[in-house]
């Protein structure tokens, strides 16, 4: 491994580079003039239960003349979120949390919850519990997580998430990279982030962040950026340029998103998303079935329908755009939906919490209304 000196960055403001935009954060729905006053009271009831936040840049992508605009659906509260069905921790992440802010579900991967803020809040978020005032799952002290990781040499990958890790200061990110670079058994660092969609000037406006990412990549370890583009219109020229800049720093960029009702639950839209992602150098990785999180019923698509949409989209794509897997991120593992016929649904464990389930093939009785694994009967 090369010996690379990763420097701790200073505190230059994000977006300070000449020509880069600094998006303004919108916390109050009343600041969005396109929302009628008579609608604000209803939507504020939703926002009081599930946090609202957006960037002015992202709000500009909305066609306000279209009440069913997909970008609007992704970011603006909806009364349907008050449906009480679901669980705030549908994948039972608490069961794989050995220490405050640390999740260890699969032997070789540790997840660190390092931030309880995002640039904006997706309405379908499966971790919306983190943004509640009384939630304390996130741990800003990375030393606790790193001590756990150092004591578990089977861990070769770290995923920084939350919340969005790219919303942290560059100084804090570079400090993480410096410490992680010194752990010999860590080979891969992953960032789970929607910042390239919400603020596509995060990297272009911060040369210090680019420098520390580049230096970390040169150390012999790999950085993967797991972006969350849900609709083709999010891939603006600025966002595509930002993807290229991450790649120039040696970062491997992949995309993961769920099938979302009213957003990308159309084969043509999903195919366009995958095609444009591949063209931008951001390979489609996972397509998720929406988790049954409280408030998310209106965004979920049944398993059989999701499989149909996915495969109709694939028919429109070249091989390079067909790399995504359709999966459920269940408490027992990531389960790939590999086929559906008139009577059955076929699945395989892509990752398993219990080693006995690793690569296990499972067959379920077909139920077109089922939206989650727990709704199905295994044969």
Characterization of this structure:
The chain is of the alpha/beta class. It has a single domain, classed as Aldolase class I (TIM Barrel). Helix content is 26%, strand content 21%. It has ten helices and 13 strands. It has an eleven-stranded mixed beta sheet with strand order 3-4-5-6-7-8-9-10-11-12-13. It is globular.
At CATH level 2, the architecture is Alpha-Beta Barrel
Task: Provide the domain count.
Answer: 1
Order of helices and strands: EHEHHEEHEHEHHEHEHEHEEEE
Count of extended strands = 13
Which CATH class applies here?
Alpha Beta
Multimeric organization: single chain
Low-pLDDT sequence parts = 1-18
Radius of gyration: 20 Å
CA-CA gap between termini: 49 Å
Shape: globular
Mean of pLDDT: 93
Task: Give the neighbour order of strands across the main sheet.
Answer: 3-4-5-6-7-8-9-10-11-12-13
Largest sheet: 11 strands, mixed
Q: What is the CATH third-level topology name?
A: TIM Barrel
CATH superfamily: Aldolase class I
Structural class by SSE content? alpha/beta
Tally the helices: 10
Helix percentage = 25-40%
